[in-house]
Amino acid sequence: MRDKIRQTKEEPREVELGRKAFAITDDSDEVLVFNNLAELCEKLKPTVIVLDSLPGRQQCAAVELAKTGTTFLRLKDLKKLSEERKNNGVKSDENDVVMLKTLFNRNSDDFQPLFETSEELTVRALTELWVQETFLKKVSKQARTTTSHPIATEIQKTHRRLVEKLAEEIHGEALKLPLYRLGDEKLGLRGPALAYILSHNGWALKTLDSDRLQVRYRLVP
Q1: pTM listed for this prediction
Q2: Which stretch of 12-26, 44-58, 72-86, 102-116 has the lowest confidence by average pLDDT?
Q3: What percent of the chain has pLDDT over 90?
Q4: Is 171 in contact with 183 (CB distance < 8 Å)?
Q5: DSSP codes of every residue in the chain
Q6: Local confidence band at 165 (pLDDT 50, 70, 90 cut-offs)
Q7: Largest Cα span, the chain
């Protein structure tokens, strides 16, 4: 992977994907601005993109680009970017792109593939939805304690039912991921929390044993 990146001349080395897509190519110090990920790739035709995160609205585009051979790498530990900001003293999208390039050139091992299969990205999107819906379920439960209106009870029950249904769907999709399937079969670990970790930080599980995973992420009661 490292050799492939070094040999690519026209790739955007670092990209911050928010409302706009900011990029800096491997052979230039100029920060380029695009309306979205699709426009960036259409104009620069990268083979490798290094980024700090991938917003949900860009994930479908990333899946399609991956099918054409584009590889996405992301920073394993975002704290490194925060530390770089503190040293730099400037916080902006353009500056983040420059710092990502600095971090990558300093140690490319600090980056990992964002995803390796389309199934992994599907699980990633579903678990992000699960996080949002779980929060709404918590809010609706709290609201029920402050009002006795029947609609409050109905809303809470609806959120609880949808979260449970989503958890089942995530488990089914996550079984397509080798590490999740292995955790389910060998360690007895399962559920949306595990699927979230695998699809966002799968590299971390390779360094933790079953007991530490259960304590650290509360994967089982």
Answers
A1: 0.58
A2: 12-26
A3: 12
A4: no
A5: -HHHHHH-SSSEEEEEESSSEEEEETT--PPEEESSHHHHHHHH--SEEEES---GGGHHHHHHHHHTT-EEEEES-THHHHHHHHHH----HHHHHHHHHHHHHH-GGGEEES-SSHHHHHHHHHHHHHHHHHHHHHHHHHHHTT---HHHHHHHHHHHHHHHHHHHHHHHHHTTSHHHHHIIIII---SHHHHHHHHHHHHHHTT--HHHHHHHH----
A6: very high
A7: 65
Bin 89: left if φ > 0, else alpha if -120 < ψ < 50, else beta. left
Give the burial class of 14: count Cβ atoms within 10 A of its Cβ; 0-12 exposed, 13-18 middle, 19 or more buried: buried
User: Taking 70 as the threshold, does the pLDDT of residue 219 lie above it?
Assistant: no
When the pLDDT of each residue in the chain is averaged and rounded to a whole number, the result is: 77
Residue 218: left (phi > 0), alpha (psi -120 to 50), or beta?
left
Q: How many CA atoms, within 13 angstroms, populate the side-chain half-sphere of residue 60?
A: 1
**Does the pLDDT value for residue 207 go beyond 70?**
no
User: Two tokens at 61?
Assistant: 């585009």
Sequence spans of domains, the chain? 2-113, 118-217
Rg of the chain taking only CA atoms, in angstroms:
20
Neighbours of 13 (CB within 10 A): 23
| Tens-digit pLDDT profile for residues 133-149 | 999 999 998 888 888 88
Q: How many CB atoms lie within 10 A of CB 142?
A: 10
